[in-house]
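Below is our example:

___
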Amino acid sequence: MRRIYIITGVSGGIGNFLARHYAKKGFEVFGTYHSNQPEILPGVITNKVDVSNPNQVRDWVNGLSMDSAELVLINSAGITYNAFAHKSDHAMWKNVIDVNLFGSFNTSSLLLPHMREKKFGRIINFSSVVAQSGVMGTSAYAASKAGLWGMSKTLAIENATKGITVNTLNLGYFDIGMIIKVPDDMQKQISAKIPVNRFGDPENIVAAVDFLVKSDYTTGESININGGLY
C-alpha cells in the first residue's frame, strides 16, 4: 500500500529532520514551509503554505496527489513569542495560537475526509513540555500546545472506528530546532535540570512516530518524550 508522510514546518529543525528521514526510507513526503524556504530536500515536495489560513491549506491539500494512499500527518509547524502576559502584544500572542493550534486543526480537518474514505490515517501533533511545566514568558506558546491535547482527544474519539488514530507527542528539549536560539548559558541550565542530563536525540522522536504509525490501538494519547522532566 502506498503511504505518504505529510509534514508541516519542514523549514524547522525537527520537521526538516523527519522529512529527510522518511524520504530516505523511500516514502513519499509532502512538506510545508512559510517564512523560510528550506534548502532542497531530496525526495520531499515542499510548498509555501500558511497553515493558519484555511483557504491556503485547502488549496494545498486539493493539489496533493494522494489517490489511494495511506496518510500520516505530522503537525510540526510552530512559532513562539516570548513576553510576560501583562507586557505582551495581543496580536503576536494570537498569531502563535493561530499557527500552532488552529494550523494543526486546519491540516487535520482537511485531510480527515481522505483518511476516513480510505479507513486509515495517522495524525501526530507535536506539543511541548513547556505546556506542562510552566515557563515564564511563554503563555502564548504554552496555551497553543496545551490546546492540542483537547483537540487530539476529540478527533481521536470522532474517528476511532475509521482506522484513524490521533495522538500528541509532548517534546522536551532536543539538540535540534528552537533550542539553538537559546543562549549557551541558559542551555546548560536547562540541560542540568533534565534527569538524563542531556538534550534529546531526534532519533527518539522518530522512534515514537514509528510506534504510533504501527499501532492501531493507541489513540487519544499524550506521550512525553522529555528525558524524565516533569
Notes: The longest helix spans residues 90-118. Helices lie at 13-24, 54-63, 90-118, 130-133, 139-158, 184-193, 203-214.
